[in-house]
Amino acid sequence: METLRTVGELHRFSEAVRGRGGRLALVPTMGCLHAGHLALVAEARRRADAVVVSIFVNPTQFGPGEDFESYPRTLEVDLGKCRAAGVDAVFAPPVEELYPPGASTTVEVAGLSEGLCGRSRPTHFRGVATVVAKLLCAARPDVACFGEKDYQQLAVVRRLTRDLCLPTEIVGVATVREPDGVALSSRNLRLRPDARREARVLVRALEAAEALVAAGERRREAVLAAVRVELAKAPSAEVDYAELVDAASLEPAPELLRVPTLLALAVRFPSREGPGAPPVRLIDNRVLRPECAAEEPS
Ligand code: PAF
Fold first, then answer.
1. Residue 292 has pLDDT above 90, yes or no
2. End-to-end Cα spacing for the chain
3. Assigned CATH for 2-173
4. Which helix (H) or strand (E) holds 72?
5. pLDDT digits 0-9 by tens, 20-47
6. Ligand 1 centre and the CA of 209: distance in Å?
7. What is the residue with the minimal CA distance to atom 5 of ligand 1?
8. Is 76 helix (H, G, I), strand (E, B) or coil?
């Protein structure tokens, strides 16, 4: 496995794969790799001849007071995991390599970036879109894999790829969960132990909503009320948002749900680092399918 530090090295790696007639897959990450990332790598390996994983804690997607400083950095362990997973190259550049002095170009995906996480993190998706565009331009992969846990991010990445005429196929990979249903996230490591137990309320809220819709409930407010009941079972949780939006446009869902609808949750929990530390913000989601479910109860 090669470790690449510069954009030039990444270009040369990509050209060499293509020169052999091979297909290249990119798995962008911020490191602290867990089974969710390894599922992305496995999918990438199924779809290409060579896989490059980028490991870069992207400063521009963190807002003031967020957890950029405390975000876990575990490069040596991550390299071992990538090697064991059959990754061909890891791209782990220093910040100046992707943001050279004077860098002034950003990518903004209007509309899709504004609701949900974009409301409480107004600069987040500009940072994500900018770094993903850089990675796609630098690696020129045939395919790139992203987790469906970050549903809005996946939508933003698909849109920017289409709008910028980038030739990469964007593939979404299903969320990997702990045995108790909590979605895997590098941030889970920062949860206070009681908050880690309480984090189960996210998946329970998703399941409650899914069960209601499957039983024929179509009223947006009734579904959201059931979600709030579940979330309220976690005393340490502070809900950032619990929203129903159109699964394609991310526009607010109508009063009566008819088409695939995303239930998106973001909840803050206390960190194990103590009250002065930034809280741990977890997200999760599920696409509800009222169009496939039972008829509405009469
Ligand atoms: O999902 C992530 O880990 C990051 O947002 C990404 C896509 C690697 C961009 O920094």
1. no
2. 61
3. 3.40.50.620
4. none
5. 999 999 999 999 999 999 999 999 999 9
6. 28
7. 128
8. helix
Q: Which amino acid is at 211?
A: A
Task: Check pLDDT > 60 for residue 72.
Answer: yes
Q: Do domains 2-173 and 186-292 have the same CATH topology?
A: no
Q: Which helix (H) or strand (E) holds 24?
A: strand 24-29
Task: Indicate which residue's Cα is closest to atom 2 of ligand 1.
Answer: 29
Paired tokens of 28:
């962008």
Residue with tokens 């001849």, as numbered in its chain: 49
34 is catalytic: no
The letter for the amino acid at 230 is E
Distance CA 237, CA 216 (A): 29
Atom of ligand 1 lying closest to residue 28 CA:
8
135 CB less than 6 Å from ligand 1?
no
Domain spans, the chain: 2-173, 186-292
DSSP 87-111: -SEEE---HHHHS-TT-------TT
- 67: tokens are 């957890």
- CB distance 150 to ligand 1 below 6 Å: yes
**117 within 8 A of 127, measured Cβ to Cβ:** no
> What secondary structure does DSSP assign to 210-228, as a single string?
HHHHHTT--BHHHHHHHHH
* pTM score of the predicted model: 0.96
Asked if CATH classification 3.30.1300.10 holds for the domain at 186-292, the reply, yes or no, is yes
